[in-house]
Amino acid sequence: MSDDCIFCSIVAGDIPARTVYETDSVLAFLDANPLARGHTLVIPKSHAHHVGDLDADLASDLFGAAASLTPEIQAAVGADGANVGVNDGEAAGQEIPHVHVHVVPRFEGDGGAAIHAVAGGRPDLSDDELDAVADEVAAAIDG
Length: 143
Description:
Pfam families: HIT. One of its GO terms (biological process) is nucleotide metabolic process. GO terms for molecular function: catalytic activity. This is HIT family protein. The protein is of the alpha+beta class. It has a single domain (about 5-140), classed as HIT-like (HIT family, subunit A). It has helices at about 5-10, 55-75, 125-140; strands spanning about 20, 25-30, 40-45, 80-85, 100-105. β1 (about 20) and β2 form a beta hairpin. The chain is globular and about 50 Å long.
């Protein structure tokens, strides 16, 4: 737990939340400033700032919960779809420094955009540039 983290305070019960799901390792609650009816945040109960800070078991618990909750949330609010995403780091729009998965129900004609819209314009990359990026990512993964 982090003393200055609002999500850790919610887990501790110091700040109220509209909890919709809870296990030993994961908590899901309605977003206090929702983008849509039913907008839910799924968080690990233990503090982790970035996705890469999660160990394999906790990542499995977190993303497993998000996967199982998404259709349930959609059904509950009569949504036609959902955007499911993580803002990982300040440059990506992460406002609370605690990993959280957004499940945002979507409705036909709601005026929202696809998840592709979050990145702005698409870079114009040649095949050689794409090959170089693939090599860089693969090298970073192999360590």
